[in-house]
Amino acid sequence: MGALNQTRVTEFVFLGLTDNWVLEILFFIPFTVTYVLTILGNIIIVVTIVFSPRLHTPMYFFLSNLSFIDICHSSVTVPKMLEGLLLERKTISFDNCIAQLFFLHLFACAEIFLLTIMAYDRYVAICIPLHYPTVMNMKVCVQLVFALWVGGTIHSLVQTFLTIRLPYCGPNVIDSYFCDVPPVIKLACTDTYLTGILIVSNSGTISLTCFLALVTSYTVILFSLRKQSAEGRRKALSTCSSHFMVVALFFGPCIFIYTRPDTSFSIDKVVSVFYTVVTPLLNPLIYTLRNEEVKNAMKHLRQRRICS
User: Fold this and answer.
1) 179 burial level (CB within 10 Å; 0-12, 13-18, 19+)
2) In a 10 Å sphere around its CB, with 0-12 CB exposed, 13-18 middle and 19+ buried, how is residue 228 labelled?
3) 95 CB contacts (<8 Å, ≥6 apart)?
4) Is the overall model pTM greater than 0.90, yes or no?
5) What digits encode the pLDDT tens for the residues 92-130?
């Protein structure tokens, strides 16, 4: 409580993406379009899966949850970034900064766990298909989704607690366009070496462990495909390649940012933009453009709506 009572900072100031206001105005349009497409694209996927009985399977149940998380994940940071692009002075209150930090880690961690679960789902479906209806029944799927939200909440609470317990009594300029743990704790009026180690250990362990689990799952799947028919290999590779593309796009930036010591690189903002703005849009594009079942379900729903 002593650390909390020392808090004097009531707001933080973002430096934003660039100090060139012309570039900020130019960035506003494409980022706004990207955000709108992200929301619409992921909503379309959720609606398609919910209203298409043929897609009521574990794989698409998890995919609809992924789209929901992507909507939430991008909405935590992008609206504030777009507002900042139009304002000369970009500020956020201390409480809102902590809230943004909490939900950012909640949705990011939930997505990490969900991508790992989706890899396990593909492993069971391809490597032990006879046991798939038993192992991945809907009750188990709901329990796994519940578990990932609990795990994400615990992770986010840990990150938030380690951040908010520090005293903030002076500097309040964040060299970013959103509140995240690494840039915020740099402003604390105390030595943050131990806190930084704990934060990196927490985030790094989750990211690397899940990534290694994903790589192991896909390695086993690739070896097992040798026993499949040509058509079975084609379908499995199509599904798994889409998933692996999403994994690479999401885990790459996360591992780069959250598994290294307290250092900053000039490319950090570019990487942050990629995983907070671009990746949530790429997910629905990858899964729809490479998935015939989803595209056919969308066509069927569109035809039903026209006929009605």
Assistant:
1) buried
2) middle
3) none
4) no
5) 999 999 999 999 999 999 999 999 999 899 899 888 889
